[in-house]
Amino acid sequence: MAVTLKEVADRAGVNPSTVSRVINEDPNLSIREETRNRILRAIEELDYRPNAVARSLRLKTTGTAGMIIPDITNPFFPEVFKGAESAASERGFSLILCNTNEDPEKEKAYIKLLAEKQVDGILLASTYIQDETIDMAAKRNIPYVLVNRASRNEGSASVVVDDVYGAELAVQHLVDLGHRRIAHISGLLYTETGLERLEGYRRTLNRNQIPFLSEYMVEAKYSEREGYLAMEKLLAIPQPPTGVFAANDLIALGAASAIVDHGLNVPEDISVVGFNDIWLAGKVHPPLTTVKVPLYDMGYLAFESLAKKILGEPMEQDKIVLRPELVVRASTRAVSARG
Amino acid sequence: MAVTLKEVADRAGVNPSTVSRVINEDPNLSIREETRNRILRAIEELDYRPNAVARSLRLKTTGTAGMIIPDITNPFFPEVFKGAESAASERGFSLILCNTNEDPEKEKAYIKLLAEKQVDGILLASTYIQDETIDMAAKRNIPYVLVNRASRNEGSASVVVDDVYGAELAVQHLVDLGHRRIAHISGLLYTETGLERLEGYRRTLNRNQIPFLSEYMVEAKYSEREGYLAMEKLLAIPQPPTGVFAANDLIALGAASAIVDHGLNVPEDISVVGFNDIWLAGKVHPPLTTVKVPLYDMGYLAFESLAKKILGEPMEQDKIVLRPELVVRASTRAVSARG
DNA sequence: TTGAAAGCGATACCAC
DNA sequence: GTGGTATCGCTTTCAA
């Protein structure tokens, strides 16, 4: 059986409340040195360890937050988690990581569970997060921050990347290399991210007087496989593109595979640009030109934002927008003569 | 303010204990249908949500476990975590994920924190985990299972892979391709894993009457950078190897980069074999021949093992040994004439 | 069939 | 300077 505060108090011959005060270093506590030492000694001798559950019940705060993500094996998330975890750890919080496999039911079940566990807050990290899930958190009055997903509701904090700008960077890069037949494999168009990257694509074409052709636009889920399938469609049209802007790196990787499988080369025949700069992006062949998103920072800032909400610290801004940057590697090059 | 059991009881005109019984579906409870319905209605109307913290305090069990890993951005761990999380979720447990960045201090601090939070058990997932850390968990009587690390202590459960066998697979593959000058970039030799893979390497050389040469043996940490550095050493010796067995995929990747940077090719000049088959292994150029370890299963079985310890279910075996298999890709080929 | 009450371990307000 | 005690929300034994 674990040692309790009361046992420590008994051994030191004082009241439990006094022990509690000593442990928590109650600022307005004046205590005789000798008493304090007796208590400290008792703690030491009994190897006393506070029970955080009892403490939480009393204090109505657990020092624990939840983080909901679709899939930790998607290389986007480990970096984000790492950032969030660092921030949490610095502030003495722990994170319960919840993997939903993109199942909305699991998402809701997790919110329910986290609420029952009385977590102090939740990080909702996914463009996929259902509105219903967000509403659940809101309804239960549990502080939350959206990561990589914009907030519809007033007052819900979020950390996102400037997707329009990032997409502009990517597409302009292709234009600068002389490409005119530029396709876009967009993300899901019911996600902010998907929509905004598409917007950046359109704007950039526009600015360069390149007409937007609907057959150069294919929607895909954010996976390698979907990227592959989408690219196959693009390859099938009479005048295939010479450059492809994919909504994320996984899609870009899939697209590159499709290109190769169809007997063409990246970047000789078709240039490919991704988005996010996951760790993998620099390691594949050819190394992927992509738009770098500060994933670690995203997680870190998201938790910081959550902590501020939890602790009632002032927040400069509800919505933090991170600025991405272009990373040029080997999957893009100037359009070839045959292009 | 959240609704409590007592409020529900008041509204239903019954005693809190009765509500509790209904909620927990107390088997030996006989209750009038009408009363039950009144209670259910009250729960519904007040949107009552149980407080797991209070419940935990009373029950002395939290339904939460901790998982300690060195670095979630190391592609080895997301898969393992995913498996563990699935098993946990199936059994109604949540997982607090703790990233230690390989810092022994952080490791110990986390054990302390988890113990205070009264987690029901801990998964220690890393070959790096310090003995001291394990002892801490043991001393506090908190059930734990080691993942990818053998246990010294009697009675501590673990899930590991058969490293000797895996290494034999890798080296024999090289031998079968005609290689005789086979080097090994070992992992850290104070880790079980490092030692056993080295053992498999030696045994296989032996079995094939190939002498073990100490200059063909370089120790490295399990990282890309260290793999690179180690390979440079191997390249510097008069008769460099034609085949390299790296203790894990990250090392193998680094080694491959070093080879290329020195103007040679993989596998034309030097064949490289890795270990683990992380997701990345099949995507790099050239795709890596490696020894596949069932990472997801490893996590899943580890949590199952932990759950059994926690719930006092019978365990067939304390130590679960998973069998790896060879995955031949393009980073190995028959030794060339010039080799 | 249901109620009363003790208690899990810690905190904090109010006394003295 | 230190002690008493109510309380956080829930479970469970014992009664009735």
Description of the molecule:
The structure is a homodimer of 339-residue chains. Chain A folds into two domains: 61-161 and 295-323, Response regulator (Rossmann fold), CATH 3.40.50.2300; 163-293 and 326-337, Response regulator (Rossmann fold, 3-Layer(aba) Sandwich). Helix content of chain A is 44%, strand content 15%. The first copy, chain A, has twelve helices and twelve strands. In chain A, helix 6 runs parallel beside helix 7. Chain A is elongated and about 90 Å long. The A-B interface holds A 49-54, 56-57, 62-64, 71-73, 75, 77-79, 81-82, 85-86, 89, 94-99, 106, 112-118, 140, 253, 279-280, 283-286 and B 49-54, 56-57, 62-64, 71-73, 75, 77-79, 81-82, 85-86, 89, 94-99, 106, 112-118, 140, 253, 279-280, 283-286.
How would you briefly describe this protein structure?
The structure is a homodimer of 339-residue chains. The first copy, chain A, has 339 residues and is of the alpha/beta class.
Write the layout of secondary structure elements.
The structure is a homodimer of 339-residue chains.
Chain A: H1 5-12, H2 16-23, H3 33-46, H4 52-59, E1 64-69, H5 76-90, E2 94-99, H6 104-116, E3 121-125, H7 131-139, E4 144-147, E5 157-161, H8 163-176, E6 182-186, H9 192-207, E7 217-219, H10 224-236, E8 243-246, H11 249-261, E9 271-273, E10 290-292, H12 295-311, E11 319-322, E12 325-327
Parallel strand pairs in A: 1-2, 1-3, 3-4, 4-5, 5-11, 6-7, 6-8, 8-9
Antiparallel strand pairs in A: 10-12
Helix pairs in contact in A: 1-2, 1-3, 5-12, 6-7, 8-9, 10-11
The structure holds a DNA duplex (16 and 16 nucleotides).
